[in-house]
Amino acid sequence: MGTSVRWGDVFGDQTVASAMIDRIVHHADVLSLKGVSYRLKSHQPAADPA
């Protein structure tokens, strides 16, 4: 998986993490979406704490 998270570090064991991810995505269609997020379209930036 092309993410910045190392799943082995998250779950404490790379083998266990690989097995869990394999079972989750076994019959799944994995989509990689590119482009601007619609959720961020109406997002208001945080006020600058000065």
From TrEMBL:
> Which InterPro entries does the protein's record reference?
IstB_ATP-bd (IPR002611), P-loop_NTPase (IPR027417)
Q: Name one Pfam family in it.
A: IstB_IS21
Annotated GO molecular function terms are:
ATP binding
Q: Which domain of life is it from?
A: Bacteria
What residues does the IstB-like ATP-binding domain cover?
6-44
Q: What is this protein called?
A: IstB-like ATP binding protein
Q: Which organism is it from?
A: Cryobacterium flavum
Taxonomy of the source species? Bacteria, Bacillati, Actinomycetota, Actinomycetes, Micrococcales
